[in-house]
Amino acid sequence: MITEATDEYCLAEGESAKLLAGHPWRRFVVLGDSVAEGLCSPVPGYSDLQWADRVAAELAVPHYLNLGVSGLKAHEIRATQLAPALAFAPDLALVVGGGNDAFSARYNPDQVDTELTTMVQALQSAGAAVITLGMFNVSYSPAIPAWLRPGLRTRMTLLSERTRSLAERLGTIHVHLTDHPLSTDPTLYSPDGRHGTARSDAVAAAETIRRLAAHLHLS
Q: Is the pTM of this model over 0.90?
């Protein structure tokens, strides 16, 4: 049985400390929906610590604030979380949103882009480095009804590509999970059909830490 300690896609022992040695971040804030809040289902052999909390723990930041709330759309994240995030005076911020928008056939990619851009630019203007995310594609969850999968897959792929383009334009630290080798693995997704498992959070945390390290080496 694969466990977190033997999973090739997770952090190896001591890897994070080596990658993040001397990093400058002290105040880490997280904005978003359930992906940020953390609602993954447990998996034997994997820590129950959620994705954003894992990243904060690996960074060992003295100040951490997770504002994530399940079910929010992008405009609701901006309306309810941006002000308290800015008041926290972060030097590192994670912004994740749009997944709940993309679940609907009424998904408006331009509107989501506008909301994400507003949050990213406001945080950058306040002096924070910003992490953005291209999510695992939940349309591969076996809990998603077959009739819903094609449209949802198209919308989730579009959200991911639009977010990656936004990240390139705004200069964020972008974590692109949509094309990850495990993205199509049905065991990566929770039985509720909307969230991931402890393994997906462990993998996402590893990819986030590696992207942060790459940013440090390039800056």
A: yes
